[in-house]
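Researcher: I'm preparing a figure for a lab meeting and need a structural model of a single chain. I don't have an experimental structure, so a prediction will have to do for now. The sequence is pasted below. Please return the structure as tokens so I can convert it later.
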Amino acid sequence: YYGVISETVGSAQGWTYDTSKWLVTFQVTRNAADYSLSVTKTYKKVGTSTTSTAADFVNYYTPPVTAAISVEKTVDNQSDDPNISGTFTFVAQQSNASGTPTASTAWTLTNASKTQSFQTGKTSFELGTATFPKAGNYYALVTESSNHTELGWDNDTTQWLVTFQVTLNGDYSLSVNKTYQNLTTKETNQQHAAFVNVYRHLAQLTIAKVVDNYADIGTATASKDQDFMIQLEGDGQTTGVALAHGETSGVMTVSSKSAGVRYDIREIVPMEYALTDIEVTDISQHSQQAPVLELQRDSQGNITGGTLTIYPENILTITVHNTFAHTGYF
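Model: Understood. Here is the structure written out token by token.
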């Protein structure tokens, strides 16, 4: 007589199930003396030549293995302030092999978000805890986002694909090997996902033009809607815009320093007009210091221009006022 013995393969996490099958041969013999029956059993592993006195099944338990994502953060401080700092958030997400975020129940990723302030230089830290119950390849996407609105920061939009290669060892333990790939350059390394942020002292400004008595100028006056050339010069750069009454320039980004950078404001004033005022407003919530405007006048007290000292993170509107004064000679 024959029978087959097998083990039911379950789904308990960490367990390796034995899929062997054993053929049992029952050799039943009748005794000649008393006509009783006796049985001998032999066991043979199906598909092999192995025999045994019992059906042997071996199971191994493999505990899950954990790994963290290594990140290197570099702040490249190109300003004259050695104490500059910025706050950034790093996020890891389960993904597929291409780096597209894809949720998976085959493994877990916890503590996958970290917010921290960084100063000049390199900082290394670990992000998240990945837990793997069995061998295989697993993937995560790592990105950075900024938590600040200061002008001077260049944000790093690099996306990193982390590949976890989980291997089952001879002793049935698991080990993890990590590879980091920059999805933009396709370069890989075994050390970390690297992010670099540059900080420079910057300020922003727009220039607006107002003719204070515009409504009183006759519609037949040829110069009523003419452009005024306004120049801003300082720190080795000159910016010029041509604006008519009611117009505003686009946003301009200029360099600055902790001690401030002086810019000269000049306007080419048509003979029919007078330069009557220059106003500066700062709408920034992060200015290191308020801008300083000094009006310049000629010997008769007429405004001829201004000198504006701009500080890091200023967001300024410079309004240049004119008054239509008299009719031109031509």
